[in-house]
Amino acid sequence: MHLPGVRAEIATALLDIDGTLLESNDAHAHAWVDALGEYGYAIPYARVRSFVGMGADQLLPAIASNLTLDSETGASIVRRRGEIFKQRYIDELQPTPGARELLLAFIADGVTCVAATSAKEDELDLLLERAGVADLIATKSTADDARVSKPAPDIVHAALQRSHALATHSVMLGDTKYDVTAARRAGVATIALRCGGSSDADLSGAAAIYDDPLSLVAAMRIS
Fold first, then answer.
1. End of a domain among 91, 114, 136?
2. pLDDT tens across 68-125, in order?
3. Is residue 130 within a helix (H) or strand (E), and if so which, with residue range?
4. Final residue before a domain boundary, out of 40, 75, 91
5. How many CB atoms lie within 10 A of CB 42?
6. φ and ψ at 208, to 5 degrees?
7. Among 51, 87, 154, 196, which residue has the fewest nearby CB atoms (within 10 Å)?
């Protein structure tokens, strides 16, 4: 398959989920703010929101230098964030426009769809269900498969390895600068989507930028 803006023929699509296939970035930020507040960290929503797309191992110290995933407080905050997200937010989440249509278009053209996300494995299945694509993605790479989460390339490398894919014949679909950076470091081209809330400046370095999955499907039909 040839994609607009990507030179090589594509055999594998590495898919970020939050913000790319599911309108969940704001909800994640709210869950972090809620959890941090319960532990005495009054972090503004806008600051937390700017780091959504990273895994917890990177997000925590970016928000507060004394918090790490390995610390007792940091680990407790992460657990509480997960509970809050599932209890208060996940049931209201909707797919991004055209999420399922895009994956169906990939599959129809013989492209393998692989999850490459900073989400934890125990959360991913719920996210895929809310995005309406759980039946279309068999291979998954999560934060549990990486020593360091995005923007490090570990998750992308894990997705390539699990799907037996070549970086040169793969494309990353993402919505944040962390996706673009992680893919670039792994030698994978990125198609970026604005539906996660990032600006074009943040997504610079992507081979192409579209509003959402639906607009990418439209471009694929034209090309």
1. 91
2. 999 999 999 999 999 999 999 999 999 999 999 999 999 999 999 999 998 888 899 9
3. helix 121-131
4. 91
5. 7
6. -160, 155
7. 87
